[in-house]
């Protein structure tokens, strides 16, 4: 992955965390790694544990950020979530999968001031 894409992804995750925190979610973990891969964000929404996939785009040349969450990625996230849940010391009664999609046209260029557009898809899959 190029440095430019990695930086855009990091910026998107920071925006998503700030957005979710403002909405009352409690950030539990960021960039949680398992043997199978990484979960972008794990947050708490009341009594529900939420696994959040963050997607950030700086253009629509290859579709929207939300459209980039493919069937294969959804399957991978389900696997990662199950591994995380099984590793916990306490039972988790309720969980869901959300997607935070961010369009940030100035996201790769610090000199270009533009406001990101954030969409939150609860129970995305």
From TrEMBL:
Top-level taxon: Bacteria
Similarity annotation: Belongs to the UPF0102 family.
Gene Ontology MF, one: nucleic acid binding
Record protein name field: UPF0102 protein BPA01_05580
One Pfam family hit: UPF0102
Alphabetical list of InterPro entries matching this protein: Restrct_endonuc-II-like, tRNA_endonuc-like_dom_sf, UPF0102_YraN-like
């Amino acid at each position: 992955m190029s440095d430019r894409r990695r930086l855009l992804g990091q910026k998107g995750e920071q925006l998503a965390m700030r957005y979710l925190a403002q909405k009352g979610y409690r950030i539990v973990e960021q960039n949680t790694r398992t043997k199978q891969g990484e979960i972008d964000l794990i947050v708490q929404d009341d009594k529900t544990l939420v696994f959040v996939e963050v997607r950030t785009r700086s253009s629509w040349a290859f579709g929207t950020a939300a459209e980039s969450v493919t069937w294969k990625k959804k399957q991978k996230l389900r696997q990662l979530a199950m591994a995380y849940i099984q590793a916990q010391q306490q039972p988790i009664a309720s969980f869901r999968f959300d997607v935070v999609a961010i369009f940030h046209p100035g996201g790769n260029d610090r000199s270009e001031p533009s406001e990101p557009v954030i969409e939150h898809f609860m129970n995305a899959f």
